Amino acid sequence: MRAxxxxxxxxxxxxxxxxxxxxxxxxxxxxxxxxxxxxxxxRGGPGHELQGxxxxxxxxxxxxxVPAGTGIMAHLHxxxxxxxxxLLSLFVSTAATLAVTALVMKLCLRDRAAGxxx
Length: 118
Hints:
It is a single chain. The protein is an all-alpha fold. Helices cover 83% and strands 0% of the residues. It has helices at residues 2-22, 28-43, 48-59, 66-74, 76-81, 83-116. It is extended. The termini are far apart.
């Protein structure tokens, strides 16, 4: 578990380094996830240890939202001042996520049906 957690954190650090050195407007962890995706594609998927570590992290995912909730409570006045842009961005991003997910699912089902046809 220690090695796979170290791998995940090292990829996140690599993402931070890439983001800061190139001045990209993308969060470092997003670049780290892209690096993880590339590594998993090259390896042919996650190993047993990485699956176990990922499962353990996902079981305690709600704990990772505590700092965000604390930040919102600390800056509640800003949320009250800027509620309309926040609400609009939530609705737009949710609609965009649903649309992209539906399109990807449609493409996956079409490719799967094409693969099954004789």
